[in-house]
Amino acid sequence: MTEKYAPSPALKDALRELTEAEELLQQRRLAVRAAVAEDLKANPDVTNAQMAEHVPYTSETIRVIAREYDVPRKRQPTVRSIKPKKRTAG
């Protein structure tokens, strides 16, 4: 009968350190996203594409961040409802 495998202390330590590093990375990502949003709010003339030149995100990701942090839009949405307006007598 073979013994049940148990990870070595070195492997356990390495896995714990990896988990801590991933948690720290996630915190840093959230901090960068918040800083991007704050910069967009503070500089309303900066476009998403201009911001994307300075950060490791695409302009589409910048747009998502802006919506997530309620950054005011640069223009009103142009998409309209496809529902026809109801006609009423009168």
Question: How would you characterize this protein structure?
Answer:
With 90 residues, the protein is mostly helical. The chain has a domain of 52 residues. The chain is built from 3 helices and no strands. The radius of gyration is 24 Å and the shape is elongated.
Reconstruct the topology from this structure.
Blueprint: H1 9-42, H2 48-52, H3 59-68
Uncertain runs: none
Backbone CA Rg: 24 Å
Write down the secondary-structure element order.
HHH
Mean pLDDT: 91
User: In terms of structural class, how would the helical and strand content be classed?
Assistant: mainly alpha
Q: Shape from CA axes? A: elongated
Topology, number of strands:
0
Portion of residues within helices: 40-55%
**N-to-C terminal Cα separation, in Å?**
90 Å
Relative strand content: under 5%
The DSSP helix count reads 3
The largest pleated sheet is described as: none
Task: Considering the chains and any ligands shown, give keywords for the structure.
90 residues; mainly alpha
